[in-house]
Design a protein that fits this description.
With 270 residues, the chain is α+β, with helices and mostly antiparallel strands. Helices cover 27% and strands 29% of the residues. Strands 1, 2, 3, 5, 6, 7, 10 and 11 form an eight-stranded mixed beta sheet that branches. A five-stranded mixed beta sheet has the order 4-13-12-8-9, with no helix packed on it. Helix 1 crosses helix 3 and helix 5 packs across helix 7. The longest helix has 17 residues.
Length: 270
């Protein structure tokens, strides 16, 4: 376990990397005994610094939802991070693909990758533990096709689970479509995803890729946060996890994701 001083130092290191658009060595290379609990404490301090800058939390993201990624990181459950108003873009908006901008915006990216996901927009609070799939569906105003542009402040994505958790679950920015679909009007398990990059299909997937259903991911999040005394609030946006592999992106790339029964979301990098 890390003491409070080391937690604060790690949070400041990641915060400075974010604001300067730089990468740092993995935390686990300097602190091999860091625990996942330590990592969430670091994430909390990192987000506190961002809130001091005027950002506002508007939702949560769920990561490590596929068995392949769990196996890669040596864990048996997902992780979570926070979404702020500085991270959100609308479908079709241009996004700076590099931090080589002066001044560096709050949404600057360092080594971004894109994931196609399903976003949930809540109309009612959810407070675990004890939340079920039926509870999630009742509490959801609608679902949307979205991109999560994951990013890492850890050099070359050399991450262990502690590194990504501390780094706000490797969240960069996210892009929402304009269509909001009643989740009861679509099969969230079998809905297919097609992700195109510069007009070429590069990734396909389905809702089942996310913990057998993205609803299960939101159930996990509500119950995990509930045990920490944290609820999901009406109006929050929940990114439920990737439906396929990550796609590296750079300036000049145009991406489009289409999810059956839900809609299409586009993003371009400049």
């Amino acid at each position: 376990m890390m003491n409070n001083s080391l937690v604060n130092d790690a949070a400041e290191l990641l915060y400075a990397a974010l604001r300067k658009g730089e990468v740092v060595d993995p935390l686990t290379s300097h602190h091999p005994d860091v625990t996942v609990e330590d990592a969430y404490a670091i994430q909390q301090q990192l987000m506190a610094r961002r809130l001091q800058d005027g950002e506002r939390i508007i939702g949560k993201k769920i990561g490590v939802t596929s068995q392949a990624v769990m196996n890669m990181l040596g864990v048996n459950q997902p992780d979570f991070g926070m979404l702020t108003d500085a991270m959100v873009f609308n479908s079709g908006d241009p996004i700076p693909a590099s931090s080589l901008i002066d001044p560096i915006p709050a949404s600057s990216l360092i080594q971004p990758k894109a994931e196609g996901e399903i976003a949930f927009v809540l109309k009612h609070d959810l407070m675990g533990p004890g939340v079920t799939a039926a509870d999630v569906l009742r509490a959801t105003e609608g679902v949307m096709a979205c991109f999560e542009i994951v990013d890492s402040r850890i050099r070359d994505w050399k991450i262990k689970i502690q590194d990504t958790v501390a780094d706000n679950a490797s969240c960069g920015v996210f892009v929402l479509s304009s269509a909001l679909i009643d989740p009861r009007d679509v099969d969230l398990i079998t809905c297919g995803m097609v992700l195109e990059k510069n007009g070429e299909v590069v990734v396909t997937g389905a809702g089942a890729a996310t913990m057998n259903s993205p609803v299960n991911a939101v159930v996990w999040l509500a119950n995990t946060l509930g045990r920490l005394g944290i609820g999901l609030k009406a109006g929050e946006i929940i990114l439920s996890g990737a439906l396929g592999a990550m796609v590296p992106v750079k300036a000049g790339d145009n991406l489009r994701v289409t999810i059956g029964g839900i809609g299409t979301c586009a993003v371009r990098f400049v």
